[in-house]
Amino acid sequence: xxxxxxxxxxxxxxxxxxxxxxxxxxxxxxxxxxxxxxxxxxxxxxxxxxxxxxxxxxxxxxxxxxxxxxxxxxxxxxxxxxxxxxxxxxxxxxxxxxxxxxxxxxxxxxxxxxxxxxxxxxxxxxxxxxxxxxxxxxxxxxxxxxxxxxxxxxxxxxxxxxxxxxxxxxxxxxxxxxxxxxxxxxxxxxxxxxxxxxxxxxxxxx
Length: 206
What we know:
Radius of gyration: 23 Å
Oligomer: single chain
Shape: elongated
Helix content: 25-40%
Number of strands: 8
Distance between the termini: 61 Å
């Protein structure tokens, strides 16, 4: 984590990464000083790539007076240049939160609002949902993984090879649209019920 300080007047058009410039993180009160964490910029680049949409920074660095004016937390990460409230073209605030969750993991802050997502690079971990208008602490925002990291799990153990082949041939195991049988994954009650129902149909009992 490295927070740089910039002059909006002199360095506003300076590129911090392929898609972000200093001026995008400037305080909305027009202050010349801009603080920006390099880890935050890297996170936004990852979100942009994952969501396949342009990222708009609604609020980046804030001066103490502006933070107080907008009702920000007294110890807001915006004051340190480590936070951004963002909107991503074509992606819901929840999806953005899920993507950020994947990349932040055990640290950082993620808040999902009705129209935007807050992300920050604090050392500790914080997650909250404010879509109802009231802040509610949550355990996290899991559920997203890069497509290229989806592992195909179609190779059965030797002892189960014949059984798996039979189950696939007879429609008991159908897998995902991508053809992933997920053989080593745990089975939910719903999945078990579906398999039993297919077996009953196979036996002519439904």
